[in-house]
Structure formats: C-alpha cells, structure tokens
TrEMBL record:
PANTHER family: FATTY ALCOHOL:CAFFEOYL-COA ACYLTRANSFERASE, TRICHOTHECENE 3-O-ACETYLTRANSFERASE. InterPro entries: CAT-like_dom_sf (IPR023213), Plant_Fungal_Acyltransferase (IPR050317). This is Uncharacterized protein. It comes from Xylaria bambusicola. It holds the Pfam family Transferase. Keywords: Transferase. One of its GO terms (molecular function) is acyltransferase activity, transferring groups other than amino-acyl groups. Gene3D superfamilies: Chloramphenicol acetyltransferase-like domain (3.30.559.10).
C-alpha cells in the first residue's frame, strides 16, 4: 500500500480523542525459550509493517497551510527505517505464573499500564517527537505471555485495529508453520484521503461557515462532540476525583439469548437485536445504581430529568457502498438515545421498550446523516482544545458504552508451535484505571468461542456496590474479578 512521505489524516481522525487504545492479550506458551517467542513477535511485526506501512508513521500536529487554515490538524509522517519494537519484559520472577493469572480471571487490578506498556502510551508529544502508530510490549510470566499494545486512536479504530492484529498474527503463524491464512486488504484501505474523495463525489460542497451555521446539535453529537451552542455538563475542577472500582462481569451465551427474548416480548415491528437488549439492560441497571447512590435530593437524577445513552457505531457498512470494509482509518460515530430517569428505571417499563428506543436511534444513523456529520468534521476551524466531548465527565445523567462484542479476537491465532491453545488468546483486557480520573466506563469485550463474553464496568465505588447486588443485573452477568 504505497503512501506519501507525509499525509494529512481524515477529518474523522482529527475529531477523535488523542489517546492510545490499549489492549492486553493473554497467550499461553508451550515450554521453550521465551527469546524465541520474542523474536517471532518482532519479525512478524516487521513483516506487518511491510504490508501496512501506516505502522511506520508517527503522528504530529500540522501547521495550517494553503490546503487548510484549520488549527490542530494531524499529519502522519513516514519513517521508513523505523519499525515498532516489541519491548521485552520478563516478569517470571516477580509475577504469579500464567495458570494462576488465568484462574483468577486475569484480575483488572493487577494490570498496571506503568508495568505492562511502553511509557509512550501516556507521554505522546504531538509537537516535537510525534505519537507512534503502534507501541507494543511482551510481558513474559512462567508459562505464558501478556502481550500489551497501544494503537494511536486518531488513525486506527476498533475495527481496523482488529485487522491489524489479525495481520500481525498471520505473519507470526507463517514464520512458525510456513503457511498463513489468507488475509487480503483492498488497495485503498490505507488511503486516509479516501473518505474525503467519497464525500466530494457524493455531496455538494458548501462554504465551511455555512456548514457550521446550519449543523444541528444532533449532527455534532453524531461526531461525538458537543455543539458550541450547547451547554456541557462540567464537573467541579477543584473536587478530588471519586473513588472508582472496575469489575469484570461474564454473560454466558444462554443469558445473552435470554436477554434478546426478553427484549422482543410483545413488540410490534422489526425485532430487537441481542446487542440492543444488552445495551438496554446495562443502561437501566447502571442508571438505577447511579440514581440510588446519588440520593433522593440529587437534581441530576430527578425522575423528569433525561438520561442519555451514547453508543459507538462503526460507520464502514453505512457511510458509502464503495468504502472498503478494510479501511484502516477511524470511522466511529455516536448514536444517542434519550429517556427520562423515571421511565428508564421504572419497573413498569419493559426491557423491550428500552431496547426498541435504542434500535430506533441506531437505525436513524443513515448514510446521509453520516455524510452530513463528515461534512461538519471537515468544516471545523479548530481540532484542538476547543472540541468538547460529552462523555469525559462525571456530571450529568449520561452514559457512554463501547461494544467490541462483534469484533473477532478469540479466533485469531499466533500459531501453535510456540504458543499453546492453538495460538489463541485466553483473555483480552484493557489496563486498569485508564479513565478513573475523568469518567465512568463500560466496554463490552469481544465474544468468546463459547458465545459468552465479558463486560468491563467502571463506576464510583458506591454505585458498583449497588450494581453487583442488583438481582435484575446479576441474573445474567456474573462477577469474574475486579
């Protein structure tokens, strides 16, 4: 995939929060020298870079020029000689062995990013040194490996990140077994100007000032932003951050099926999906816990107040018919569902009613609406500190969930010569306490081979105490670990 030495990224990349998306994959190893595993990981990553040169780039803040007068734009500069290294970290003498870690559920509290990740994930400098597209570290324990990697979110999202890991695993497997599964990329997959080309072909361009003036607050929110004209819920900056707790819950395949049945009881029209049902159950039960923890005098959680549910949505299937599914840039939209606190938490409101409201919000995000939001993204005069994100706060009655349940992760094989379990992961986890100082967090982790899946929930301690005791919730979601 030939790319220019320096390229501006897409407007959708520019509106993403400038953070690393961080993951830890737990892989069981066969007996043998860990140096051989490390060598395979580094060589396979080098081959991945040959096939996907975006990984050899570093992201910087660009200076305004004749192409665009906007400030805060990002550009990715090529470093052909630079190959992401896999940092070697032997924890076998200080950490529990792999069996013990797996038996404990790979506890979230043990996954310290300061130990498991290269320091660059929290120290990126977009002005001088740039942010690497990928940072990786191999953490070896007795009998296994915790492979930790961070992907710079403004140029790779969850969907394209999965493709990246599949490509890395393909090369690791090929190095061990001299054969790898077919994994082909569309020739335009790494063209970060592709969205703009499609938009220009399918829309009538108007002056940016007109787009900014006519864009509705709903269009801003679809981008994951708060319109300048809209008030934002801001917490007291002088208040100390609350004490938070993360819990991993497990939802078996049978309970996932039961949730879908409950969400389709006595409904008219198209059925709700299992994912609609899960989001409805999470939204209601989490807001119940937040309501009770806040107390009866809380104005934020009064019955007539509106709760907002923000869900991330991959736009590849809807943005345009000619956009390849293997497009590597970011294309994440936010769908928003609204319901009063009283109605959402009432026992008289069925799960089907909540799930249907969510389904209608998701279905309303058409190709036209996505392209309207893209038009707004490309018209913004500043992509820096002026952008306001609705979910980076503890204030208000808003919830934001990210679902990776549809992303294949547990069928990705790194080869079965050096790796046990067919080279597939036992667990996938984010590091602990990533956003504790800024917001609550809910991430639905990828579906396992059993058809069940885990959910990471981070709430204030008093809210989590209530959620873990909520009969409606724990009927389907079992506590794995903290």
């Amino acid at each position: 995939m030939a790319q220019p030495p320096k390229m501006r990224v897409s407007p959708m990349d520019n509106v993403m929060p400038r953070i690393y998306a961080n993951f830890i994959i737990a892989l069981r190893l066969k007996p043998g020298p860990i140096s051989a595993v490390h060598s395979i990981l580094e060589e396979s990553l080098r081959r991945t870079c040959d096939e996907l040169p975006i990984l050899r780039r570093k992201v910087f803040t660009a200076q305004p020029d004749g192409h665009s007068g906007a400030t805060g734009l990002l550009e990715a500069k090529e470093s052909p000689e630079w190959i992401p290294e896999v940092v070697f970290n032997d924890l076998s003498s200080t950490w529990p062995d792999y069996d013990e870690l797996v038996d404990s559920g790979l506890e979230q509290d043990a996954l310290d990013a300061q130990v498991l990740f290269p320091p660059g994930i929290y120290e990126q400098d977009l002005h001088n040194n740039g942010a690497c597209a990928l940072l990786a570290q191999a953490n070896f324990v007795e009998g296994g490996l915790l492979l930790a990697f961070g992907i710079f979110h403004p140029i790779v999202d969850g969907h394209s990140g999965t493709l990246l890991v599949k490509l890395w695993a393909k090369h690791a497997k090929a190095l061990q077994q001299n054969v790898g599964p077919a994994l082909e990329f569309h020739p335009d997959s790494a063209d970060y100007d592709l969205l703009d080309k499609i938009w220009k072909a399918e829309n009538v361009e108007q002056p940016p000032e007109i787009t900014l003036k006519t864009a509705s607050p709903e269009t801003w929110r679809l981008l994951g932003l708060i319109a300048p004209s809209e008030p934002s819920e801001e917490a007291d900056p002088t208040a100390p951050p609350p004490k938070m707790r993360s819990t991993i819950f497990y939802v078996p395949a049978t309970d996932f099926k039961a949730l879908r049945a409950e969400a389709n009881a006595d409904i008219q029209g198209a059925p709700n999906t299992a994912n609609d049902a899960l989001m409805a159950k999470l939204w209601r039960c989490i807001m119940k816990a937040r309501l009770v923890a806040a107390g009866p005098s809380s104005a934020e959680y009064s019955p007539e107040n509106t709760s907002l549910l923000d869900l991330t949505l991959d736009g590849r299937a809807r943005f345009s018919q000619i956009l390849p599914s293997s497009y590597m840039g970011t294309l994440v939209f936010i769908t928003t569902t609204r319901m009063t606190i009283g109605k959402l938490t009432s026992t008289d409101t069925s799960l089907a009613e909540i799930a249907t409201a969510i389904r209608l919000s998701v279905d309303a995000v058409t190709s036209k609406r996505m392209q309207e939001a893209f038009g707004l993204a490309r018209a913004l005069p500043d992509y820096g500190d002026s952008l306001k994100f609705p979910f980076a706060t503890f204030a208000g009655a808003e919830a934001c969930f990210t679902s990776w349940v549809g992303l294949s992760a547990f069928d990705i094989s790194f080869g079965d010569v050096l790796f046990a379990n067919g080279g597939c992961a036992d667990y996938l986890r984010p590091p602990r306490r990533e956003f504790d100082a800024f917001c609550r967090r809910v991430v639905i982790l990828p579906m396992q081979k059993s058809g069940g899946f885990e959910i990471l929930v981070t709430l204030k301690e008093e809210e989590m105490d209530l959620l873990e005791k909520d009969i409606e919730f724990i009927r389907h979601a079992k506590v794995v670990c903290h």
